[in-house]
Design goal:
Number of helices: 7
Strand content: 15-25%
CATH architecture: 3-Layer(bba) Sandwich
Number of domains: 1
Structural class: alpha/beta
Shape: globular
Largest sheet: 7 strands, mixed, barrel
CATH topology: Glucose Oxidase, domain 1
CATH class: Alpha Beta
């Protein structure tokens, strides 16, 4: 594997934009690299979107894996190349990750995504569609840019960290008013870690999504904590949200190619 030197720090970033872009582009283009795993969410992923070329992904079909600010790259890969990306744990999270999180990350590398069961149902129903989304705050900042995938027909996943309930409410209202949620097939809600009173957070989420009349599952073990199960962005998910029981998220068999 080619050695990629670490960039020098540049303010709150892990290097100047041209350094970070060059090293990421090298990893995307290198046919011997099968997966690009983000070291951390960090900041500044949106600064690279206009300059990235994903043509190397089409031939190698390598996986891009990460979460948090990496949401911008994950959505961009699905939008511009039509390939699957993986919302999952980063290098920084791996030492604290639980066993099932690591097992699911390894399974994702092989194109396998076991079902996620025992989820709370906020609104019943069944739906099927491609899974998209990620960090709520990052998605809001993609609104009005050409880098936000169309969510109509999709199963929308959302999570966030260190955002107060009123800020979560404002972000969701932004998506609703911007018509981003028009036609969404179902909603998956992960962890809203360190976001204040969880009962209040749950109430805000329930209130904002109740108007859509679509299946809503709450409590996915996905987010900024030690449990961050891999989700296939661009892969097809099946939501079963029973009014009388717990919800289930299943995935159609996936093959990212060889």
């Amino acid at each position: 594997m080619a050695h990629v030197p670490l960039p020098r720090c540049h303010g709150f970033l892990a290097g100047k934009d041209e350094e970070r872009h060059g090293e990421l582009q090298q990893a995307l283009d290198d046919p011997t690299i099968r997966m690009v795993l983000a070291a951390r969410g960090g900041y500044g992923a949106m600064r690279l979107l206009e300059h990235l070329n994903y043509s190397g992904l089409s031939s190698t079909r390598k996986l891009i894996v990460g979460s948090s600010d990496i949401t911008a790259l994950l959505c961009d890969v699905v939008l511009r190349v039509g390939l699957m990306s993986v919302h999952g744990p980063m290098v920084e999270q791996i030492p604290q990750a639980d066993a099932e999180t690591l097992e699911r990350l390894l399974a994702a590398m092989e194109g396998r995504f076991p079902p996620i069961t025992n989820l709370e149902v906020l609104h019943p129903g069944e739906a099927e569609g491609p899974i998209l989304g990620g960090n709520l705050t990052v998605l809001c900042h993609l609104v009005g840019t050409p880098f936000l995938p169309r969510m109509s027909g999709a199963i929308l996943f959302l999570e966030d960290v260190t955002e107060s309930p009123y800020r979560i409410d404002r972000a969701l209202r932004h998506l609703l008013l911007a018509r981003v949620l028009d036609g969404v097939a179902a909603v998956l809600l992960g962890e809203f870690r360190e976001c204040g009173d969880q009962a209040e957070v749950r109430e805000v989420l329930t209130e904002n999504f109740s108007c859509l009349g679509i299946p809503v599952l709450y409590g996915l073990p996905v987010g900024h904590g030690p449990r961050n199960f891999a989700l296939p962005f661009g892969g097809i998910g099946q939501v079963i949200a029973s009014a009388s029981g717990k919800g289930v998220l299943r995935f159609e068999p996936l093959d990212q190619g060889s």
